[in-house]
Amino acid sequence: MSCMRLMFLSKTVCVLMLGLSVSLVQAGEVRIAVAANFTAAMKEIADDFEEASGYRTVISFGSTGKLYAQIENGAPFEVFLAADQRRPELLERKGTAGARFTYAVGKLVLWSSDAEQVLNEQVLHEGEFEKFAIANPKTAPYGVGAVEVMRNLGVYETWKPKLVRGENIAQTYQFVATGNAQLGFVALAQIALNDKGSRWTVPESLYSPIRQDAVMLKKGEDNPVARALLAYLKSDAARAVIQRYGYGTE
User: Fold this and answer.
1) Which residue, 8, 17, 105, 224, could crosslink 248 as a Cys pair with Cβ 3.0–4.6 Å?
2) What is the largest CA-CA distance in the chain?
3) C-alpha distances in angstroms, 5 versus 84, 120, 182?
């Protein structure tokens, strides 16, 4: 056999082995798009899932609207954990997703990093602060809920000129935490495990339930790790974590 032919065969074997190696790595992982409000809870759930299963999770966090747009544009996600029901339902209708279920019910909190503040409904009626943070209602369901609360209390027009809109609820939290906004509507999950600042838990009668749906995307249908993750999200262990971060479960 000629040297040229041996070199060709050697390179072919290397390429095949590399391809097999990549396939084996990918077979043991799942790529997940996760709404920003669920960041802390998902990190804990992912760690527990990885330890229990031996699988690997690759997670991208962001606003539900932006993640949805990425999925529509072909992003390689296999599972989508949204902050609403609308986007997963749209994907389901288009035939690009299925197996949809509610994994958490979010709650809104009026929050200030200043522990000396007394926060309640009256604060919203007084409108004395200079900057008020909410998530962008165009991309983040928690922003939709925040606007709904203010409209129901008749204070939206008062606060509208003072609103600072975060790209997602994580950025909204940062605006308040750093003092760039004196107060704002954040997710209870973001502050459930600490006593920093001051808070008022918004009555759930003031906004529509923030039901957050998980859905299997088309790219994950043949991935057993994606199926295992969605099953784990329904487990008692995962539900206990979700509830500890201040979410409701159904």
Assistant:
1) 105
2) 89
3) 58, 79, 72
The whole-angstrom separation of Cα 158 and Cα 125 is: 8
Domains defined for the chain, CATH in brackets: 3-106+211-244 (3.40.190.10), 108-201 (3.40.190.10)
pLDDT at 190: 93
In the predicted model, what is the mean pLDDT of residues 204-215? 96
Q: 3-state class of 162 per DSSP? A: helix
Q: Which residues contact 126 (CB under 8 A, 6 or more apart)?
A: none
Contacts of 122 (CB under 8 A, 6+ apart): none
- pLDDT tens digits, 149-178: 999 999 999 999 999 999 999 999 999 999
By the 8 A CB rule, do 180 and 107 touch?
Answer: no
How far apart, in whole angstroms, are the C-alpha atoms of residue 201 and residue 246? 11
Strand partners for 105: 211, 248
Which residue type, as a one-letter code, is found at position 166? G
For the four alpha carbons of 173, 139, 161 and 205, in that order, the dihedral sign comes to negative
- The model carries a pTM of 0.82
